[in-house]
Amino acid sequence: MQGSKLYRYFWIGIGLLALSLQIFIIYYVYWHRHFLVPPGNDVVGHYNLIKTVMVAGKVNLSAYPAGFHLIVIGISKLFHRDIWWVLTNLTPILIILPTLAMFFLLRQIFSLKVSVLTSFVLLLSSGYPLYGFIDGNYPDMLAYGFFAVMLFAFLIRYFKTNKKLNLVWSGLFLLLIALTHHFTFFNVLSILLVFGLIQLYQKIFTCKIKLSLKVVLSTGIFLVLLIAGYFLSELLYGGMVSNFIIGFFTNAPFLKNNYLNILPDYNDYPSFAGNLVWCFGLAGFIYLLMTNFSTKTDKKAKQLVIIWLIFFYVMSRLNESSVPGRFARELALPLTVSLAFLWRYVFELNLNRIRLGQIFVFGLIGYLVIINSVIFNGFNEIPNTFTNHIWFWPVDQAKVDYIDSNIAKDAPILYNPAANLFLPVKTTNIRMTPLKLTEEQILVVENYRKHQDDKKIQKNYQNLIKDVQLKYKNISYVLDDVNPPGNTDPSAYPAYANYLNYKKVIESLEEESQNVKTFEDSASIHKIR
Protein backbone atom coordinates (compact mmCIF):
# COMPACT_ATOMS: atom_id res chain seq x y z
CA MET A 1 0.00 0.00 0.00
CA GLN A 2 2.88 2.36 0.84
CA GLY A 3 3.91 4.42 -2.16
CA SER A 4 0.57 4.01 -3.84
CA LYS A 5 -1.92 6.78 -4.49
CA LEU A 6 -4.34 5.19 -2.04
CA TYR A 7 -1.70 5.31 0.71
CA ARG A 8 -1.00 8.96 -0.05
CA TYR A 9 -4.69 9.90 -0.15
CA PHE A 10 -5.28 8.08 3.13
CA TRP A 11 -2.69 10.11 5.05
CA ILE A 12 -3.65 13.37 3.38
CA GLY A 13 -7.24 12.61 4.39
CA ILE A 14 -6.17 12.03 8.00
CA GLY A 15 -4.35 15.37 8.00
CA LEU A 16 -7.30 17.26 6.52
CA LEU A 17 -9.64 15.59 9.00
CA ALA A 18 -7.46 16.73 11.92
CA LEU A 19 -7.34 20.30 10.56
CA SER A 20 -11.10 20.34 10.08
CA LEU A 21 -11.63 19.04 13.60
CA GLN A 22 -9.46 21.75 15.14
CA ILE A 23 -11.10 24.50 13.08
CA PHE A 24 -14.52 23.18 14.13
CA ILE A 25 -13.52 23.13 17.81
CA ILE A 26 -12.25 26.72 17.64
CA TYR A 27 -15.17 28.17 15.74
CA TYR A 28 -17.77 26.12 17.61
CA VAL A 29 -16.77 28.17 20.65
CA TYR A 30 -17.29 31.38 18.67
CA TRP A 31 -20.64 30.29 17.22
CA HIS A 32 -21.90 29.10 20.59
CA ARG A 33 -20.88 32.17 22.58
CA HIS A 34 -21.21 34.82 19.85
CA PHE A 35 -17.95 36.47 20.83
CA LEU A 36 -17.68 40.18 20.03
CA VAL A 37 -13.91 40.30 20.62
CA PRO A 38 -11.12 37.71 20.73
CA PRO A 39 -9.69 36.56 24.08
CA GLY A 40 -7.02 38.47 25.97
CA ASN A 41 -6.23 42.15 26.21
CA ASP A 42 -3.21 42.48 23.88
CA VAL A 43 -5.69 42.81 21.03
CA VAL A 44 -6.56 46.32 22.29
CA GLY A 45 -2.95 47.37 21.79
CA HIS A 46 -2.87 45.81 18.32
CA TYR A 47 -6.11 47.58 17.43
CA ASN A 48 -4.64 50.92 18.49
CA LEU A 49 -1.51 50.26 16.42
CA ILE A 50 -3.66 49.42 13.40
CA LYS A 51 -5.64 52.65 13.82
CA THR A 52 -2.38 54.60 14.12
CA VAL A 53 -1.09 53.10 10.86
CA MET A 54 -4.39 53.85 9.12
CA VAL A 55 -4.48 57.46 10.34
CA ALA A 56 -0.78 58.21 9.77
CA GLY A 57 -0.63 56.34 6.47
CA LYS A 58 2.86 55.07 7.27
CA VAL A 59 4.62 52.49 9.42
CA ASN A 60 6.90 53.19 12.37
CA LEU A 61 8.96 50.03 12.94
CA SER A 62 10.66 51.50 16.00
CA ALA A 63 7.26 51.52 17.74
CA TYR A 64 6.32 47.98 16.66
CA PRO A 65 6.84 46.02 13.42
CA ALA A 66 3.59 46.36 11.48
CA GLY A 67 3.60 43.23 9.31
CA PHE A 68 0.65 41.64 11.08
CA HIS A 69 -1.21 44.94 11.33
CA LEU A 70 -0.82 45.63 7.60
CA ILE A 71 -2.22 42.17 6.84
CA VAL A 72 -5.28 42.93 9.00
CA ILE A 73 -5.77 46.26 7.22
CA GLY A 74 -5.47 44.54 3.84
CA ILE A 75 -8.03 41.85 4.74
CA SER A 76 -10.36 44.52 6.14
CA LYS A 77 -10.29 46.42 2.85
CA LEU A 78 -10.50 43.29 0.71
CA PHE A 79 -13.64 41.98 2.43
CA HIS A 80 -15.08 45.41 3.30
CA ARG A 81 -15.18 44.56 7.00
CA ASP A 82 -14.18 46.62 10.01
CA ILE A 83 -10.98 45.93 11.94
CA TRP A 84 -12.75 44.31 14.88
CA TRP A 85 -14.48 41.81 12.59
CA VAL A 86 -11.10 40.71 11.21
CA LEU A 87 -9.44 40.54 14.64
CA THR A 88 -12.33 38.57 16.12
CA ASN A 89 -13.20 36.16 13.33
CA LEU A 90 -9.94 35.51 11.49
CA THR A 91 -7.22 35.52 14.16
CA PRO A 92 -8.22 31.98 15.32
CA ILE A 93 -6.67 30.79 12.04
CA LEU A 94 -3.31 31.62 13.64
CA ILE A 95 -3.81 28.58 15.87
CA ILE A 96 -3.45 26.17 12.95
CA LEU A 97 -0.74 28.01 10.97
CA PRO A 98 2.14 26.52 13.04
CA THR A 99 0.86 23.04 12.23
CA LEU A 100 0.78 23.77 8.49
CA ALA A 101 4.32 25.14 8.60
CA MET A 102 5.48 22.24 10.76
CA PHE A 103 4.03 19.71 8.31
CA PHE A 104 6.00 21.36 5.49
CA LEU A 105 9.19 21.23 7.57
CA LEU A 106 8.67 17.59 8.55
CA ARG A 107 8.10 16.57 4.94
CA GLN A 108 11.62 17.74 4.11
CA ILE A 109 12.92 15.00 6.42
CA PHE A 110 10.28 12.34 7.01
CA SER A 111 7.69 10.22 5.26
CA LEU A 112 4.12 11.38 4.75
CA LYS A 113 2.94 9.06 7.54
CA VAL A 114 5.37 10.40 10.16
CA SER A 115 4.76 14.01 9.10
CA VAL A 116 0.97 13.73 9.32
CA LEU A 117 0.93 11.90 12.66
CA THR A 118 3.41 14.29 14.26
CA SER A 119 1.56 17.35 12.96
CA PHE A 120 -1.65 15.76 14.26
CA VAL A 121 -0.16 15.67 17.76
CA LEU A 122 0.99 19.30 17.60
CA LEU A 123 -2.40 20.41 16.31
CA LEU A 124 -4.66 18.68 18.81
CA SER A 125 -2.65 18.08 21.97
CA SER A 126 -0.15 20.92 22.30
CA GLY A 127 -0.65 23.93 24.55
CA TYR A 128 1.10 25.99 21.88
CA PRO A 129 -0.18 28.12 20.19
CA LEU A 130 -3.42 28.18 22.21
CA TYR A 131 -1.69 30.07 25.02
CA GLY A 132 -0.36 32.61 22.55
CA PHE A 133 -3.80 33.12 21.05
CA ILE A 134 -5.44 33.64 24.44
CA ASP A 135 -2.77 36.20 25.31
CA GLY A 136 -3.25 37.96 21.97
CA ASN A 137 0.36 37.45 20.81
CA TYR A 138 -0.69 37.52 17.15
CA PRO A 139 2.49 38.97 15.58
CA ASP A 140 4.64 36.51 17.52
CA MET A 141 2.41 33.60 16.51
CA LEU A 142 2.70 34.61 12.86
CA ALA A 143 6.43 35.38 12.96
CA TYR A 144 7.57 32.43 15.07
CA GLY A 145 4.82 29.86 14.56
CA PHE A 146 4.71 30.23 10.77
CA PHE A 147 7.49 32.35 9.25
CA ALA A 148 10.34 30.99 11.42
CA VAL A 149 9.29 27.37 10.90
CA MET A 150 9.07 27.96 7.14
CA LEU A 151 12.54 29.55 7.22
CA PHE A 152 13.99 26.48 8.95
CA ALA A 153 12.10 24.22 6.53
CA PHE A 154 13.64 25.87 3.46
CA LEU A 155 17.06 25.81 5.12
CA ILE A 156 16.74 22.04 5.60
CA ARG A 157 15.42 21.77 2.05
CA TYR A 158 18.57 23.53 0.82
CA PHE A 159 20.79 20.90 2.45
CA LYS A 160 18.54 18.24 0.93
CA THR A 161 18.53 19.57 -2.67
CA ASN A 162 21.52 21.99 -2.82
CA LYS A 163 19.30 24.42 -4.72
CA LYS A 164 20.10 28.06 -3.98
CA LEU A 165 16.45 29.04 -4.47
CA ASN A 166 15.70 27.52 -1.07
CA LEU A 167 18.14 29.97 0.53
CA VAL A 168 16.29 32.78 -1.21
CA TRP A 169 13.05 31.54 0.34
CA SER A 170 14.74 31.36 3.76
CA GLY A 171 15.91 34.95 3.33
CA LEU A 172 12.41 36.03 2.34
CA PHE A 173 10.90 34.51 5.48
CA LEU A 174 13.63 36.13 7.58
CA LEU A 175 12.59 39.48 6.10
CA LEU A 176 8.93 38.74 6.90
CA ILE A 177 9.91 37.95 10.48
CA ALA A 178 11.76 41.27 10.72
CA LEU A 179 8.66 43.12 9.51
CA THR A 180 6.34 41.24 11.86
CA HIS A 181 7.97 40.75 15.27
CA HIS A 182 11.23 42.22 16.56
CA PHE A 183 11.81 39.73 19.37
CA THR A 184 11.35 36.72 17.10
CA PHE A 185 13.73 38.26 14.56
CA PHE A 186 16.42 38.57 17.23
CA ASN A 187 15.89 34.97 18.41
CA VAL A 188 15.97 33.48 14.92
CA LEU A 189 19.11 35.46 14.05
CA SER A 190 20.78 34.10 17.18
CA ILE A 191 19.89 30.50 16.28
CA LEU A 192 21.14 30.99 12.72
CA LEU A 193 24.39 32.51 13.99
CA VAL A 194 25.13 29.51 16.23
CA PHE A 195 24.09 27.08 13.47
CA GLY A 196 26.33 28.88 10.96
CA LEU A 197 29.34 28.88 13.28
CA ILE A 198 28.93 25.13 13.82
CA GLN A 199 28.90 24.57 10.05
CA LEU A 200 32.09 26.64 9.76
CA TYR A 201 33.76 24.70 12.56
CA GLN A 202 32.87 21.38 10.97
CA LYS A 203 34.17 22.41 7.58
CA ILE A 204 37.49 23.73 8.84
CA PHE A 205 38.33 21.41 11.75
CA THR A 206 36.18 18.27 11.60
CA CYS A 207 36.25 17.77 7.83
CA LYS A 208 39.81 19.15 7.66
CA ILE A 209 39.19 20.99 4.42
CA LYS A 210 41.61 23.51 3.02
CA LEU A 211 40.82 27.17 3.46
CA SER A 212 40.02 27.83 -0.17
CA LEU A 213 38.94 31.23 -1.40
CA LYS A 214 35.40 29.88 -1.87
CA VAL A 215 35.16 28.72 1.74
CA VAL A 216 36.57 31.98 3.10
CA LEU A 217 34.24 34.09 0.94
CA SER A 218 31.10 32.09 1.68
CA THR A 219 31.86 32.08 5.40
CA GLY A 220 32.66 35.78 5.39
CA ILE A 221 29.48 36.64 3.51
CA PHE A 222 27.40 34.57 5.93
CA LEU A 223 28.88 36.23 9.02
CA VAL A 224 28.67 39.71 7.50
CA LEU A 225 25.00 39.18 6.65
CA LEU A 226 24.17 38.03 10.17
CA ILE A 227 26.06 40.89 11.81
CA ALA A 228 24.41 43.27 9.35
CA GLY A 229 21.09 41.77 10.40
CA TYR A 230 21.75 42.75 14.02
CA PHE A 231 22.74 46.28 13.02
CA LEU A 232 19.72 46.51 10.73
CA SER A 233 17.43 45.45 13.56
CA GLU A 234 19.05 48.10 15.74
CA LEU A 235 18.17 50.75 13.15
CA LEU A 236 14.69 49.38 12.44
CA TYR A 237 13.59 48.88 16.03
CA GLY A 238 15.05 52.00 17.61
CA GLY A 239 17.62 50.44 19.94
CA MET A 240 15.54 47.45 21.04
CA VAL A 241 18.32 44.95 20.29
CA SER A 242 21.05 46.84 22.15
CA ASN A 243 18.70 47.47 25.08
CA PHE A 244 17.83 43.78 25.22
CA ILE A 245 21.50 42.69 25.07
CA ILE A 246 22.53 45.22 27.74
CA GLY A 247 19.61 44.18 29.94
CA PHE A 248 20.41 40.51 29.38
CA PHE A 249 23.98 40.84 30.65
CA THR A 250 23.18 43.29 33.46
CA ASN A 251 20.28 41.34 34.98
CA ALA A 252 17.81 44.05 33.95
CA PRO A 253 15.10 42.54 31.69
CA PHE A 254 14.27 44.67 28.64
CA LEU A 255 10.56 44.19 29.35
CA LYS A 256 10.02 45.02 33.00
CA ASN A 257 6.88 43.19 34.06
CA ASN A 258 6.53 41.28 37.32
CA TYR A 259 4.24 38.72 35.68
CA LEU A 260 6.13 38.22 32.40
CA ASN A 261 9.54 38.02 34.09
CA ILE A 262 8.55 35.13 36.38
CA LEU A 263 10.43 31.91 35.67
CA PRO A 264 8.04 29.04 34.93
CA ASP A 265 8.03 26.17 37.38
CA TYR A 266 9.50 22.95 36.01
CA ASN A 267 6.11 21.32 36.51
CA ASP A 268 4.55 23.87 34.14
CA TYR A 269 6.54 22.85 31.07
CA PRO A 270 4.35 19.86 30.13
CA SER A 271 1.20 22.00 30.22
CA PHE A 272 2.85 24.72 28.09
CA ALA A 273 4.03 22.38 25.35
CA GLY A 274 1.37 19.72 25.86
CA ASN A 275 2.00 16.56 27.90
CA LEU A 276 2.35 14.36 24.85
CA VAL A 277 4.67 16.75 23.00
CA TRP A 278 6.76 17.36 26.11
CA CYS A 279 7.26 13.74 27.20
CA PHE A 280 7.79 12.14 23.80
CA GLY A 281 9.59 15.23 22.49
CA LEU A 282 12.17 14.96 25.28
CA ALA A 283 12.56 11.27 24.51
CA GLY A 284 13.10 12.24 20.88
CA PHE A 285 15.66 14.85 21.92
CA ILE A 286 17.63 12.22 23.86
CA TYR A 287 17.42 9.95 20.81
CA LEU A 288 18.83 12.78 18.67
CA LEU A 289 21.76 13.30 21.03
CA MET A 290 22.61 9.59 21.01
CA THR A 291 22.20 8.89 17.30
CA ASN A 292 24.59 9.42 14.41
CA PHE A 293 22.72 9.87 11.13
CA SER A 294 24.08 8.91 7.75
CA THR A 295 22.31 11.38 5.43
CA LYS A 296 23.29 15.03 5.12
CA THR A 297 19.67 16.17 5.56
CA ASP A 298 19.27 14.29 8.84
CA LYS A 299 22.59 15.58 10.18
CA LYS A 300 21.82 19.23 9.44
CA ALA A 301 18.24 18.94 10.69
CA LYS A 302 19.53 17.31 13.89
CA GLN A 303 21.98 20.16 14.50
CA LEU A 304 19.36 22.82 13.82
CA VAL A 305 16.75 21.23 16.09
CA ILE A 306 19.22 20.75 18.95
CA ILE A 307 20.35 24.39 18.76
CA TRP A 308 16.74 25.57 18.46
CA LEU A 309 15.58 23.54 21.45
CA ILE A 310 18.54 24.37 23.70
CA PHE A 311 18.32 28.09 22.88
CA PHE A 312 14.65 28.30 23.81
CA TYR A 313 15.07 26.18 26.93
CA VAL A 314 17.98 28.27 28.22
CA MET A 315 16.04 31.49 27.56
CA SER A 316 13.07 30.03 29.44
CA ARG A 317 15.30 29.63 32.53
CA LEU A 318 16.54 33.23 32.56
CA ASN A 319 14.61 36.22 33.92
CA GLU A 320 16.83 38.38 31.73
CA SER A 321 15.09 37.01 28.63
CA SER A 322 12.10 39.19 29.65
CA VAL A 323 9.50 36.55 28.73
CA PRO A 324 10.72 33.14 30.00
CA GLY A 325 7.18 31.76 30.02
CA ARG A 326 6.76 32.50 26.32
CA PHE A 327 10.05 30.73 25.53
CA ALA A 328 8.82 27.75 27.59
CA ARG A 329 5.62 27.28 25.62
CA GLU A 330 7.39 27.86 22.29
CA LEU A 331 9.59 24.86 23.02
CA ALA A 332 6.68 22.88 21.59
CA LEU A 333 7.91 23.39 18.02
CA PRO A 334 11.48 21.99 18.28
CA LEU A 335 10.13 19.26 20.56
CA THR A 336 7.68 18.31 17.81
CA VAL A 337 10.53 17.78 15.34
CA SER A 338 12.38 15.70 17.96
CA LEU A 339 9.21 13.65 18.38
CA ALA A 340 9.11 13.00 14.63
CA PHE A 341 12.68 11.63 14.69
CA LEU A 342 11.68 9.25 17.49
CA TRP A 343 8.55 8.07 15.72
CA ARG A 344 10.38 7.43 12.49
CA TYR A 345 12.67 5.15 14.45
CA VAL A 346 9.69 3.37 16.03
CA PHE A 347 7.92 2.94 12.69
CA GLU A 348 11.06 1.43 11.17
CA LEU A 349 11.20 -1.33 13.80
CA ASN A 350 10.25 -4.85 12.78
CA LEU A 351 7.09 -4.53 14.86
CA ASN A 352 5.59 -2.23 12.26
CA ARG A 353 6.04 -4.73 9.49
CA ILE A 354 3.30 -6.74 11.14
CA ARG A 355 -0.17 -5.41 10.45
CA LEU A 356 -1.26 -6.06 14.03
CA GLY A 357 1.71 -4.06 15.28
CA GLN A 358 0.83 -1.15 13.00
CA ILE A 359 -2.74 -1.13 14.28
CA PHE A 360 -1.47 -1.11 17.87
CA VAL A 361 0.96 1.78 17.30
CA PHE A 362 -1.57 3.93 15.42
CA GLY A 363 -4.26 3.16 17.98
CA LEU A 364 -1.92 4.12 20.82
CA ILE A 365 -1.05 7.42 19.14
CA GLY A 366 -4.71 8.20 18.52
CA TYR A 367 -5.60 7.38 22.11
CA LEU A 368 -2.81 9.54 23.52
CA VAL A 369 -3.78 12.47 21.31
CA ILE A 370 -7.45 12.23 22.31
CA ILE A 371 -6.85 12.07 26.07
CA ASN A 372 -4.49 15.04 25.79
CA SER A 373 -6.85 17.16 23.72
CA VAL A 374 -9.97 19.22 24.37
CA ILE A 375 -12.12 16.45 22.90
CA PHE A 376 -11.45 14.23 25.92
CA ASN A 377 -13.21 16.76 28.17
CA GLY A 378 -16.40 16.44 26.16
CA PHE A 379 -18.07 18.85 23.77
CA ASN A 380 -20.06 20.38 26.63
CA GLU A 381 -16.84 21.95 27.91
CA ILE A 382 -15.67 23.30 24.54
CA PRO A 383 -17.77 26.52 24.68
CA ASN A 384 -15.93 27.48 27.87
CA THR A 385 -12.50 27.26 26.23
CA PHE A 386 -11.93 31.01 25.92
CA THR A 387 -14.68 32.55 28.06
CA ASN A 388 -12.43 33.23 31.05
CA HIS A 389 -10.41 35.60 28.86
CA ILE A 390 -13.24 37.31 26.97
CA TRP A 391 -13.68 40.78 28.39
CA PHE A 392 -16.34 42.34 26.20
CA TRP A 393 -19.87 40.94 26.16
CA PRO A 394 -23.33 42.01 24.89
CA VAL A 395 -23.93 44.01 28.08
CA ASP A 396 -20.78 46.00 27.28
CA GLN A 397 -21.94 46.46 23.70
CA ALA A 398 -25.18 47.88 25.14
CA LYS A 399 -23.11 50.56 26.89
CA VAL A 400 -21.32 51.39 23.64
CA ASP A 401 -24.64 51.59 21.78
CA TYR A 402 -26.12 53.88 24.43
CA ILE A 403 -23.11 56.22 24.39
CA ASP A 404 -23.03 56.36 20.59
CA SER A 405 -26.79 56.94 20.31
CA ASN A 406 -27.49 59.29 23.23
CA ILE A 407 -24.31 61.25 23.91
CA ALA A 408 -22.61 63.66 21.53
CA LYS A 409 -19.42 62.27 19.98
CA ASP A 410 -17.40 65.21 21.27
CA ALA A 411 -18.84 65.13 24.81
CA PRO A 412 -16.02 64.36 27.30
CA ILE A 413 -16.69 61.14 29.24
CA LEU A 414 -14.51 60.26 32.23
CA TYR A 415 -14.11 56.50 32.79
CA ASN A 416 -12.30 53.97 34.97
CA PRO A 417 -9.31 52.76 32.87
CA ALA A 418 -9.08 49.51 34.85
CA ALA A 419 -12.74 48.53 34.39
CA ASN A 420 -13.25 47.45 30.78
CA LEU A 421 -10.32 47.71 28.38
CA PHE A 422 -12.41 47.35 25.23
CA LEU A 423 -15.23 49.83 25.75
CA PRO A 424 -13.16 53.02 25.19
CA VAL A 425 -11.90 51.78 21.80
CA LYS A 426 -15.24 50.34 20.70
CA THR A 427 -17.25 53.55 21.05
CA THR A 428 -17.24 56.30 18.42
CA ASN A 429 -16.97 58.96 21.12
CA ILE A 430 -13.76 60.86 20.40
CA ARG A 431 -13.33 62.30 23.90
CA MET A 432 -13.32 59.22 26.12
CA THR A 433 -11.06 60.37 28.97
CA PRO A 434 -9.36 57.88 31.31
CA LEU A 435 -9.10 58.83 34.96
CA LYS A 436 -5.41 59.21 35.79
CA LEU A 437 -4.04 59.08 39.32
CA THR A 438 -0.46 59.29 40.50
CA GLU A 439 1.01 56.55 42.69
CA GLU A 440 0.75 58.91 45.65
CA GLN A 441 -2.93 59.58 44.92
CA ILE A 442 -3.64 55.86 44.56
CA LEU A 443 -2.10 55.33 47.98
CA VAL A 444 -4.40 58.02 49.42
CA VAL A 445 -7.46 56.30 47.93
CA GLU A 446 -6.35 52.90 49.16
CA ASN A 447 -5.87 54.21 52.69
CA TYR A 448 -9.31 55.80 52.58
CA ARG A 449 -10.95 52.57 51.44
CA LYS A 450 -9.37 50.72 54.38
CA HIS A 451 -9.65 53.41 57.08
CA GLN A 452 -12.62 55.62 56.26
CA ASP A 453 -13.15 56.59 59.91
CA ASP A 454 -9.73 58.17 60.27
CA LYS A 455 -10.27 61.94 60.04
CA LYS A 456 -6.82 62.73 58.71
CA ILE A 457 -7.22 60.13 55.97
CA GLN A 458 -10.70 61.51 55.25
CA LYS A 459 -9.30 64.99 54.77
CA ASN A 460 -6.54 63.76 52.48
CA TYR A 461 -9.10 61.95 50.37
CA GLN A 462 -11.43 64.97 50.21
CA ASN A 463 -8.52 67.12 49.03
CA LEU A 464 -7.74 64.52 46.38
CA ILE A 465 -11.33 64.61 45.10
CA LYS A 466 -11.15 68.41 44.86
CA ASP A 467 -7.94 68.12 42.83
CA VAL A 468 -9.54 65.57 40.53
CA GLN A 469 -12.64 67.74 40.05
CA LEU A 470 -10.44 70.69 39.16
CA LYS A 471 -8.34 68.62 36.76
CA TYR A 472 -11.41 67.23 34.98
CA LYS A 473 -13.64 70.29 35.26
CA ASN A 474 -14.61 70.11 31.57
CA ILE A 475 -16.00 66.58 31.85
CA SER A 476 -19.67 66.22 30.85
CA TYR A 477 -20.29 62.59 31.86
CA VAL A 478 -18.86 59.95 34.17
CA LEU A 479 -18.98 56.26 33.26
CA ASP A 480 -18.95 54.08 36.37
CA ASP A 481 -18.13 50.76 34.72
CA VAL A 482 -17.45 47.33 36.25
CA ASN A 483 -14.97 44.57 35.52
CA PRO A 484 -16.22 41.99 33.01
CA PRO A 485 -16.59 38.36 34.14
CA GLY A 486 -13.55 36.15 33.75
CA ASN A 487 -9.94 36.36 34.82
CA THR A 488 -9.10 40.00 35.58
CA ASP A 489 -6.37 39.17 38.08
CA PRO A 490 -4.06 42.23 38.04
CA SER A 491 -0.99 40.09 38.78
CA ALA A 492 -1.51 38.43 35.40
CA TYR A 493 -3.10 41.41 33.64
CA PRO A 494 -1.67 44.66 35.07
CA ALA A 495 -4.12 46.76 33.05
CA TYR A 496 -6.78 45.78 35.60
CA ALA A 497 -4.70 46.93 38.58
CA ASN A 498 -6.21 49.52 40.92
CA TYR A 499 -9.73 48.93 39.62
CA LEU A 500 -11.26 49.41 43.08
CA ASN A 501 -9.25 52.57 43.75
CA TYR A 502 -10.33 54.16 40.47
CA LYS A 503 -13.91 53.06 41.10
CA LYS A 504 -13.92 54.73 44.51
CA VAL A 505 -12.92 58.07 42.98
CA ILE A 506 -15.49 57.69 40.19
CA GLU A 507 -18.21 57.02 42.77
CA SER A 508 -17.19 60.13 44.72
CA LEU A 509 -17.47 62.23 41.58
CA GLU A 510 -21.00 60.88 41.03
CA GLU A 511 -22.29 62.35 44.27
CA GLU A 512 -23.05 65.67 42.59
CA SER A 513 -24.25 64.24 39.28
CA GLN A 514 -27.41 62.92 37.64
CA ASN A 515 -27.75 59.21 36.89
CA VAL A 516 -28.92 59.00 33.27
CA LYS A 517 -28.54 55.25 32.67
CA THR A 518 -27.98 52.07 34.69
CA PHE A 519 -27.11 48.82 32.92
CA GLU A 520 -27.88 45.23 33.87
CA ASP A 521 -24.38 44.62 35.28
CA SER A 522 -24.84 47.67 37.60
CA ALA A 523 -22.59 49.93 35.53
CA SER A 524 -23.99 53.45 35.17
CA ILE A 525 -23.56 56.73 33.33
CA HIS A 526 -23.86 60.02 35.21
CA LYS A 527 -24.19 63.52 33.85
CA ILE A 528 -22.19 66.17 35.66
CA ARG A 529 -24.47 69.03 36.71
Automatic annotation (TrEMBL):
Coiled coil spans: none
Keyword Membrane included in the entry's annotation: yes
Transmembrane segments: 9-30, 50-72, 84-106, 112-134, 141-159, 171-201, 213-232, 269-289, 301-319, 331-347, 359-379
Keywords in alphabetical order: Membrane, Transmembrane, Transmembrane helix
Lineage: superkingdom: Bacteria
Name of the protein in its database record: Glycosyltransferase RgtA/B/C/D-like domain-containing protein
